[in-house]
Amino acid sequence: MKKNEIEVEYMSKQTVGFIGIGVMGKSMASHIMKAGYPLVVYTRTKEKAMELLDEGANWADSPKQLAEQADIVISMVGYPHDVEEIYLGENGIITNGRAGLYIIDMTTSKPSLAIKLHNEGKEKGIYVLDAPVSGGDIGAKNAKLAIMVGGDEEVFNNMKPLLEVMGENIIYQGKAGSGQHTKMCNQIVIASNMIGVCEAIVYAEKAGLEPNKVLESISTGAAASWSLSNLAPRILNEDYSPGFFIKHFVKDMQIALEEAEAMDMETPGLSLSKKMYETLNEQGEGNSGTQALYKYWK
Fold first, then answer.
1. What kind and span of H or E run contains 150?
2. DSSP 8-state code for residue 55
3. Is the pLDDT of residue 240 over 60?
4. Which of 35, 149, 264, 278 lies at a 20 to 30 A Cα distance from 139?
5. Which residue has the higher pLDDT, 298 or 170?
């Protein structure tokens, strides 16, 4: 038996606890269970987890209870304050956790918080990785997420077989917080790119072109991007369902702006995008997908 096969066989016996059964988390947790890992789930709205529970997952009433049952805890929640409460609150996993527990926070959160979790965990013998993802609901459903990881490299190597159940492009970026910093780079690219995608569609419409034909021409050339190929067709179909919520994207951009300012860096593209998305958020589009930026022109 090869080394990787031994690792997978060993890890498949470990119980995984998953916190956050949302747009992406549900698919990610499902892949884990289908790969043979016993699964325990917790989310604030139990109804969101019913499909997984019907398929054999176990339920935990709190993060603390989940940690008591799991060998590895994965979280995919909304905001940094959610992450801090889950891990460092009164019923938090690190607060009450046992030595030897593995934690993988896949929420897009603050690099400084990732470092804090790593350090707090280390004091208790708990191993912590920050591993935010990119790929949206499509990447989550197809187990093709890009996963960017920060933390101790040995811990990353131990957890890589599990990460491979959820994604394809899995790269160790460096010390604690590095995964979150890499995700900020990802969000900075998307922020300006989505403006370009939406502007191009509006321009095509105003010029009297057929937007679908325009996409056929430009999606394979120098303008090609994931957003152009995957989200522009949704816009043309008036599908604004969330692969990623606008309200969460605004949160991510705020984190990126704060980190950039701390490094004395100007981010004009990011600043403009955040302002536009905040306008939509204020207009009640917070639960729409990021492709709803198209409505800014409407």
1. strand 145-150
2. T
3. yes
4. 278
5. 170
Contact between 223 and 193 under an 8 Å Cβ cutoff? The reply is no
Q: Taking the model in full, what pTM does it have?
A: 0.91
CB atoms within 10 A of CB 28: 24
Strands (E), the chain: 16-19, 39-42, 58-59, 72-75, 102-105, 127-130, 133-134, 145-150, 167-174
Question: C-alpha distances in angstroms, 14 versus 5, 23, 107, 243, 262?
Answer: 15, 25, 22, 30, 40
**Given the structure tokens 């990802």, which residue do they identify?**
186
Strand, coil or helix: 124: coil
For residue 4, the model assigns a pLDDT of 52
Catalytic pick from 183, 275, 295, 298?
A: 183
CB 24, CB 140: distance < 8 Å? yes
Condensed to tens digits (0 to 9), the pLDDT of residues 172-214 reads: 999 999 999 999 999 999 999 999 999 999 999 999 999 999 9
Q: Distance (Å, rounded) from C-alpha 176 to C-alpha 206?
A: 48
Could you give the 3-state DSSP secondary structure of residue 108?
Answer: coil
d(CA 286, CA 102): 33
Q: Please, are residues 21 and 41 in contact by the beta-carbon 8 Å criterion?
A: yes
Best CA proximity match to 178, nearest among 261, 134, 118, 265: 118
Both tokens of 34, joined, read: 């289908």
**Spatial separation of the C-alpha atoms in residues 270 and 198, rounded to whole Å:** 15
What is the residue type of 175?
K
Catalytic annotation present for 183: yes
